[in-house]
Structure formats: structure tokens, C-alpha cells
Amino acid sequence: MKVxxxxxxxxxxxxxxxxxxMRQVELPTIRDLNVEVHEGExxxxxxxxxxxxxxxxxxxxxxxxxxxxxxxKIVYRGEELTADRIARLxxxxxxxxxxxxxxxxxxxKVGYQIRKGRKDAQTRQRLDDIFKRYDLKKEVEDLYPFELxxxxxxxxxxxTAMIENPRxxxxxxxxxxxxxxxxxxxxxxxxxxxxMGAAVLIITHDLELALETVDRIAVFYAGTTIEEAGVGDFxxxxxxxxxxxxxxxxxxxxxxxxxxxxxxxxxxxxxxxxPFMPRCGQCTEACRGQIPYKEIRGGxxxxxxxx
Length: 307
Ligand SMILES: Nc1ncnc2c1ncn2[C@@H]1O[C@H](COP(=O)(O)OP(=O)(O)OP(=O)(O)O)[C@@H](O)[C@H]1O
Ligand SMILES: [Mg+2]
What we know:
Strands 6-7-8-3-9-10-12-11 form an 8-stranded mixed beta sheet, sandwiched between helices. Helices cover 26% and strands 25% of the residues. The protein has 307 residues and is α/β, with parallel strands linked by helices. It has helices spanning 53-61, 83-89, 110-115, 121-133, 150-162, 180-195, 207-213, 243-250, and strands spanning 6-18, 24-37, 42-46, 68-76, 79-80, 94-97, 168-172, 199-203, 216-221, 224-230, 294-296, 299-301. The model has no long low-confidence stretch (mean pLDDT 93). It has one domain: P-loop containing nucleotide triphosphate hydrolases (Rossmann fold). Helix 6 links the parallel strand 7 (168-172) and strand 8 (199-203). Residues 53-54, 99, 172 line the site of magnesium ion.
């Protein structure tokens, strides 16, 4: 197999915080996270709120908050992605569609922001194409973000990344606020980029929409990857490997909207061993120990009882 465009190995991210007694505490928010994305491939990262999806994106882009520290290894096209290297590639070869609309500059007209001030004919042409694709009228170029709806600003954020010629795209929740037609169009746009050779990592809550477009799914739970599965594995519950992935499958509208009780543990109360244990019908005493990340049927899973 070819060298992956992005390979994240044993990523750890923790925050230093001060508790009430001004004691310094370390919060291990991402633990031993592994993901790979290849050329021509779209991988979706799914997982509940607070599972560490945006942190993963910010860790790769080198834009973590000041109180965060990161360990593990990020490899981009066969070489380690050091702080210097990401600073050089960020915004051109490696782009991020951020989750928050607050990344737009409130004081710059959107056309200027998307072009990043460039006026050459090629940039002009790419902007016109993207505006057409996302149903943005020409006049929008001269407006400021506050004059646009949330959905329009979301499209501006996507356009800002897609006007480049990226080899790696990380899109953090690119579709909320978009109507289904535009959301599907955005997903098709990611597909086209991948088909032209880019590697795409899409972070999303919308498993159903992801399954229509992507190649593989990485499932996050409480700061780690608990399963990597091909899209085909989601056709039936039995072909999935982890009890949490199976629960996500059963929660999909077409599979009956069945939700499991409970919620993901918070970093401060993380159980030893498997983080899903308190909600799992299959768990035993052995789940309190180390859980290896193992390969099964072409996918990977972190569960002692997966087969
Ligand atoms: N600056 C920070 N200091 C301390 N903890 C933080 C900080 N930023 C994020 N966290 C914690 O890291 C965890 C993961 O956050 P993250 O934003 O990556 O979640 P997410 O999976 O993207 O969620 P969502 O689906 O809501 O976007 C959360 O529990 C959050 O509280
Ligand atoms: Mg997020």
C-alpha cells in the first residue's frame, strides 16, 4: 500500500489547568489516538460532542490553545509534520475548514477573505467557480460576514479552504446550517477533490450523510479511536466491530433511532481500561485492563470481545 498522506500515531493531547486550590492538574483529553488517510480517500471522523474531534484537527494544523501539549507522532507524506513544516504548508497544501464561524474576519469583505487578497486571473476564476457551486451571488463578495446568514457564512468558510489546491483537507463539521441540497453538494465537492488525488478528513455528526460519500469511518469515543471501519461495514450491524459503533448504527433514523442510555465519561472521571465500559452490555472485569487496538476483518477496533 502507498504511504499515507496523513498518519497519526499514538496522539496524546492534554491540558494544564488550575483547580480550586490553585493546584496544577493535567487533563489527558486525547489518549493514544490513531488515524490514517490515503491519497484519493475520504475518512470521516464521527463521535459525540466533546470526544476530541476538533482537538485532533487543531493538533494536526498546529493551532492548539496555549495550555495544551501534544505527544505522539504526525507524519505527512512520509515525513514528520513538525511545527515549522505545518506552518509552511498550512493554508495552501494543507487546509482546514474550521468548525466555528468565528474564524471569519468580521472586518473584511468575504470576497477579499476568500481570495486572501490575491487578484490574479486564476484565483478570480476559482472564486467564480466556487460561488457558482455553492449558490453564492456575485454581490456577496462585497458583503461582510455579519451581513450574511449562518448557512452563507458556512459556505464562505468552505470556499476559503477550497480555493487553494490542497493535498490534505481537514473539514471540521462543514455542513451544519446548510440545507440538505447544499450539504450534499459540499460532500460531492470533497469527493471530487479526493478523486483528483487529495486526502480528505471530514469531522461530522452526520453519519448518514457521511456514509453516502466517504470511504472509511473512524469512530471516536472519549478522546480515542475505538474503531476504523469501511463504509460497507455499516450496511449491517453484524459487520461492525465495537459495541459503541453498533450503538451508533442503531441510533441512525433508518435503523430505528434507538439510543443507548448514559453519556461519554468526562476526562476527570475516566474509568481505567475501556471508556465505554459503563454503558456496555458485554463488559467484564477484564475490560478494566489495557485494551489493545487490533486489526479485524480489514478494520481496527479497541475491544477485547470484538470478532
Ligand atoms: N482550551 C481547553 N482547555 C481545557 N479543555 C479543553 C480546551 N479545549 C477543549 N477542551 C476539552 O477537550 C475536549 C474535546 O473537545 P473538542 O472540541 O475536540 O470536542 P469535539 O469532539 O470537537 O466536540 P463537538 O462535536 O462539540 O465539536 C472537551 O471535553 C473540551 O472540554
Ligand atoms: Mg468540534
